[in-house]
Amino acid sequence: MEMQPIKFYQTATFTVGNRLLGEHERSVQANMRRTNSLNSGHRACQGCGEALGARYAIDAAMRASDSQLAAVNATGCLEVFSTPYPETSWQIPWIHSLFGNAAAVASGVAAAMRVKGQEDVRVIAQGGDGGTTDIGFGCLSGMFERNDDVLYICYDNEAYMNTGVQRSSATPPAARTATTAAVGTAPGNVFGTGKNVPLIAMAHCIPYVATASVANLRDLEFKVTKAMPIRGSRYIHIHVPCPLGWGSAPADTIKVARLAVESGLFPLFEAEHGEFVNSTKIRRKVPVDEYLSLQKRFAHLFAKPVDSTRIALIQAIADHNVKRFELLG
Amino acid sequence: MFQTRIHGRGGQGVVTAAEMLSVAAFLEGRSAQAFPSFGSERMGAPVIAFCRIDDKEIRLREPVLDPDAVIIQDPTLLHQVELFKGLPSTGYILINSARGLDELGLKEFVHRFRPNRVRAIAATELAMKHVGRPVPNVPLLAGFAAITREVKLESVVAAIREKFPPAIAEKNVAAAEEAFAVAGGKLEASHA
Amino acid sequence: MDKPFAITLDVGSSLANKTGSWRTLRPVYLDRLPPCNHACPAGENIQSWLYHAESGDYAAAWRTLTLDNPLPAVMGRVCYHPCETACNRGQLDEAVGINSVERFLGDQALKRGWKFAPPPAESGKRVLVVGAGPSGLSAAYHLRRLGHRVKIIEAGPLAGGMMRFGIPKYRLPREVLDAEIKRILDLGVELELKRKVTDILATMREGSFDAAFLAVGAHIAKRAYIPAGSAARMLDAVSVLRSMEGDEKPLLGRRVVVYGGGNTALDVARTAKRLGASESIIVYRRTRERMPAHDFEVEEALQEGVLIKWLSTIKNMADEGTLTVEKMQLDEKGFPQPTGEFETLEADSLVLALGQDVDLSLLDKVPGLIIEDGVVKVGPNMMTGYPGLFAGGDMVPSERTVTVGIGHGKKAARHIDAWLSGKTYAPPPKHEVAEYDKLNTWYYADASKTVRPTLSLARRTSTFEEVVKGLDETNALFEARRCLSCGNCFECDNCYGVCPDNAVIKLGPGKRFEFNYDFCKGCGLCVSECPCGAIKMIPETI
Amino acid sequence: MLKQTEGSHAVAEAIARCRPEVICAYPITPQTHIVEGLGEMVKTNELANCEFINVESEFAAMSVAIGASAAGARTYTATASQGLLFMAEAVYNAAGLGLPIVMTIGNRAIGAPINIWNDHSDSMSMRDAGWIQLYAETNQEALDLHIQAFRLAEELSCPVMVCVDGFILTHAYDRVDVPEQEQVDAYLPPFVPRQALDPAQPVSIGAMVGPEAFMEVRYLAHHKQLRALGLIPQLSDEFKRHFGRSSGGLLRTYRTEDADTIVVALGSVNGTIQEVVDEMRAEGSRIGSVSICSFRPFPLDAAREALGRAKRVVVIEKSLAVGLGGHLSDGVRKSLSGIVLNGYTVIAGLGGRPITRNSLHQLFRDAEQDELEQVTFLDLNADLVAYELAREAQARTTGPTAEAILRRVGTVASQIA
Predict the structure, then answer these.
(1) How many domains, in total, are found in chain D?
(2) A94/D205 Cβ within 8 A
(3) Domain total for chain C?
């Protein structure tokens, strides 16, 4: 399956829809009859990236599976804001069990579907970065190792937002959270060795691994659509800004996500059976400052005197990504 | 109720012996209960297994404390574990050894038991000869049948055939039959 | 399904939770004025005709275009397109080639023989138009479409005014001009040629016209006193260019000097080249930066071998054709001051291109008019001091271009129409302009401007063939699609897609969108991500 | 069909006859033989149409079970000891979601010190998780209870734990009657889930519930167990009609009519107790015993009925409620509220310490003389404890007591009694 770039529609090449395109070429989100899997009335904050990412992904999955879908949700913002008794925002069969077991519960659902001869029903597990890269990691790895027939989607907002912005293993260097140094010579998260879960997923040699961003809908939908029919374990890691936790303007959610991609800090790539296959190229490369300076969690880097040393370190990370994932040209 | 205690080391088929004994008894329509004293079997560690045989349902769940028979699959245990604890003077003793009881230094000790109820059998050698592995449990079981008459040889043979795949089973049957004879078992008697 | 209490819920039930109450700001859709439309002297709704062109519906695009301007094929050639100067895309890569798409549409119309729709009803009113130049033709066209009987009286032998007698063939082929004029006349506009109106009020009485629009062109060349020998050959630009339309081509000789810095000067110099002059020199008293002529024309002229002497004035011309030229220098205010340095220049002829005046004699008997600097004062409704007498184009204070003329014609027509029925025409209020910072240009692919092919130099200096060629269908479409649709929704579905609360309702093709304020939390994502700036946030009134 | 076989294998065969659709397996002694047996049967297709999943932890085992059950599959798993504690969060969750999962507990002690032998500390730690807990007295009952457990779980939409004493039952070769498939099919209808993840009928399962409804949700969970009090005996009777033997039920009395002294216990120790009761009856004692099968829900009324007329009640506990005494005693005492009699709690058999006839015999004699403490530790090595307490008193060494004691015992655990 190849990503078909839309040619010759300058006015709207990168927009959600395009009146000049045929129905089949348009994004799911442009469709008047899209599922709205996560429908209105949920209690997500204004400009919530996760609410947006979840609808993007699940709507695409619904189209790809012809609405034969069941979803498992880890504890976290997404679960809390979508299903407070007595209301739920989900339009699909959905279950929440625990914080750390979404992958395993999904394995169980998939097994049940298989044994009941309902293999046409596709199973998705979803969780935040905490539920995926930290507490749910054991179950995730187990699911990968068994290559269970599940698409796991991680909505990465880079900290524990539901509990009030604490550090997770996905929190980037220098970012301030409630559990990282607030003051001192180097406030914010440490420049650790990092934990790149997409790469760890690749190490399991599962059929498909991809990263995506709410800033690039067509890319995101393409990857979900590509992943859905594949049998076995699949993993998609979606970057979803959190205005609350990042201290960015609600209206800037997509802009911030876009700058993460365009700066090289959040590379968009695909891997099959453990092998890197391609990356989504950066359209207009920007320095990391443009991304960082929009977020209060990095404000300390720009306070007088500007912490150019650590900004340079972050730029180096971006540049490394650009090389490693061939993000240019 | 007839209670047997089997002493040996992990890997010598101690637990299997108790189980086969219970199966043999079961095949004769009796109630039998076999169980190990110990779960995490490791090669070489001292292991004890028990078997109770009775004509009515066995409810008792305690380990065998006052055995009617003691089977010792590994004579090196003699000075480590209290092998004969609770064994009355009417009890049976079966020891796996090519050497005589005297050589084992049990001359004095076994005087208090009835001579025809104490035996040393070269079970390991018999196992090597017929099965090719140093697993003394089957020959000892046959020896047990011979001296105690608690179970018939053919029941032991049937239990062997239930427990092992045919090829190995037949080798064990051969070992059992020779051990039975060595132990002075009277086939016709057991057939009677 | 027998669901356990509370822990299992029916889907979609959160619709009961009206999150709209969280809102302090609300998004609203709006149309902003695209800079191109804002800058167009003819008041064209450029963005909206490009919208049709984008989808390949050229007929609709042409119809929208001609609601404002009846001469797209002409305009597509001679307009100096201020729209492209204003185009936001210029700040992204290059301005959209509006002018070339307009020309493409004009040519399509001619090729396919598209006609204007006849007026829905006749008003029974008669309006006189004096002058068949761009302004007059435009007024006549609009008045006719509004249902009035229109008669144009033109002094010249052919309709077109300056478009014919001022602009050389190589910029505007005559068959294009003729065809577009004919299409206007086909609407039922009456045209009388070779008649000079001397007394406008008398002419109106005779023809019992209810109103008149005066659009006499500036055909009288300005003279400057240059001492010259009796044999010296000195001509004016207007007559040179006019004579190009007749059979008698002007005799300019091998060495031609043109005096002046306007577009007319360039037209003459380039015409001289085509007539075979080996030297064609423009003498201008200021610098290139200060030259009133459009730079692209200067560029084309230089390419064709026209020479320009900057900072120079002509002092006199001797019989044998020797010109004395004084070097000038600019003072701090930018005015040229004599230096006292002189040089001479050999010329077979000197053509003066120092600007033109309008012949206002037809107004002599009209009371209540104010005339200053050779032009008539008009009100914001284009009416002169004399009721029912309207004027536009070169006759009124304003820049003198074809586009401005066409704009005047349209504007006057609307006011005349209102005046005729005793009303006053109030133009619709102008929307705020869609500045570049209102756009989110990330969504537009990079696509640089399509350059129109130009004629080879050799042919340009030897023939009067059109220098700049048009676009073909594919690249015209490409060019149209470079439009950013500034300030006007083009239904890209971004707002519909990026709303985390599904609070945008898509109404279907052509119907745009509306907000569902029951659920809109007012985050403003739709505003940030709208590529064309067609949404804004306004405070919620609590 | 009668067989002489291992308890674990008997249970595995019973499970197989129940046609489970998803089985989650993670090894931990002494439960391991059960899932090994099932894995074998799935491999040989003796157990068809079943997904056997080797998970990476007990937490995952219960989580996979939750997913499978929520998707409408009949689901089984087994664990013990540390494994049960590791899956604790998911154990509560399964009950909260009302998923009819059946799980075998091969009862085993909990560390530290790590100990693989039998007691009830593991299942007791989950007694309030919202699961039904049934304790098996024999291997035959262990086998039978699993068949009843699926019926019970699926009729109530409530998970059921069948507790089987580790080694004592799981590893014991006994005679058991393994029912035929047709018999089980006749007793246990196919699983019709109360709720399921189904695209044709989408619902959201596992909503967040606040103070406005949480109490009610919890009350309903309690109410469900009260209903089980009626259903358990009913299913036991029905079982008897189908299989010709009685198993399960809330509790069973043994020679309690006219008994002054009644011993109460859970699980396999009841067999030994009954032996002792017979001995003492023969010696003229008026003693009887009660074997509690259903610990959750706890049969307050049945217990009161069985014990109410005795002079004294001795509760044998295979788990220690540290700082209090025993868990079983709590229920027994509550059932006797208002009745004046002597109640004794006896902690016995922790970590596999054999509970012998002799010790019980002596214990019950002391009880008859009312010479027991409120809480007694059976066969506690008093010297050892005294020594260790003294040692601690003079040398405040930190670190685990276990090592210190083992040094003093100085012998391998295989040594008996």
Answers:
(1) 2
(2) yes
(3) 4
Q: Which residue, among D6, D118, D171, would best test binding to B if mutated, counting the most B CBs under 10 Å from its CB?
A: D171
Searching chain C, which residue's CA lies closest to the CA of residue A253? C525
Q: Are residues D264 and D222 in the same domain?
A: no
Within-domain flag for D322: yes
**Which residues constitute the domain of residue B69?**
2-191
Question: Which of chain A's residues have a Cβ under 8 Å away from the Cβ of C527?
Answer: 251
Measured CA angle at C479 (ends C474, C484), to 5 deg:
140
Chain B residues inside the 8 Å CB shell of D415: 81-82
Question: By the CB < 8 Å criterion, does D209 face chain C?
Answer: yes
Residue C258: enclosing H or E segment and its boundaries? strand C255-259
Question: How many Å from the N-terminal Cα to the C-terminal Cα in chain D?
Answer: 36
C268-273 mean pLDDT: 92
What range defines the domain where residue D51 resides? 2-243
CA distance C175 to C189: 19
Distance separating alpha carbons of residues D234 and D70, to the nearest angstrom: 27
Q: Phi and psi (nearest 5°) for C113?
A: 70, 35
Q: Which of B166, B163, B182, B62 is nearest to B119 (CA)?
A: B182
Residues D224 and D279 placed together within one structural domain of the fold:
no
Instruction: Please state, rounded to an integer, the average pLDDT across all residues of chain C.
Output: 92
Terminal-to-terminal C-alpha distance of chain B:
22
Beta strands in D187-338 (DSSP E): 203-205, 251-254, 261-266, 287-292, 294-296, 312-317
Whether the per-residue pLDDT at A4 is higher than 70: the answer is no
Choosing among 3.30.230.10, 3.40.1000.10, 3.40.50.970, 3.40.50.300, the CATH entry for A10-324 is: 3.40.50.970
Question: Please, what sign has the CA dihedral across residues C65, C68, C69, C70?
Answer: positive
Q: What is the pLDDT of residues B100-149, one digit of tens each?
A: 888 888 888 888 999 999 999 999 999 999 999 999 999 999 999 999 99
Match 């403490």 to its residue by tokens: D373
Chain D CB contacts of A92 under 8 Å are 199, 202
CA distances from C142 to B64, C159, C182, C213, D399 (A): 119, 17, 15, 12, 103
Closest CA to D302 of D236, D375, D369, D220: D236
Query: In this complex, is the C-beta atom of A147 within 8 Å of any C-beta atom belonging to chain D?
Result: no
CA-based nearest residue to D187, from D145, D245, D239: D239
Are residue C78 and residue C184 in the same domain, yes or no?
Answer: no
Q: Is C208 exposed, middle or buried (0-12, 13-18, 19+ CB in 10 A)?
A: exposed
D264: domain CATH number? Answer: 3.40.50.920
**Number of structural domains chain B divides into:** 1
Tell me the mean pLDDT in the region A246-274.
Answer: 98
The pTM assigned to this predicted structure is 0.91
Of D243, D269, D296, the position where a domain reaches its end is: D243
Q: DSSP states of D220-231 as a string?
A: HHHHHHHHHHHH
Give just the sign of the alpha carbon dihedral A72, A76, A78, A81: positive
Give one DSSP letter per residue of D170-204, joined into a string: TT-EEEEEPPPHHHHHHHSPPP--SS---TTS-EE
User: Of A13, A40, A283, which is closest to C501 when you measure between CB atoms?
Assistant: A40
Work out the burial of residue C113: count CB atoms within 10 Å of its CB; fewer than 13 is exposed, 13-18 middle, 19 or more buried.
Answer: exposed
One domain for residues C336 and C269: yes
pLDDT top residue among D416 and C321: C321
Strands C322-330 and C336-346, by their bridges, are antiparallel
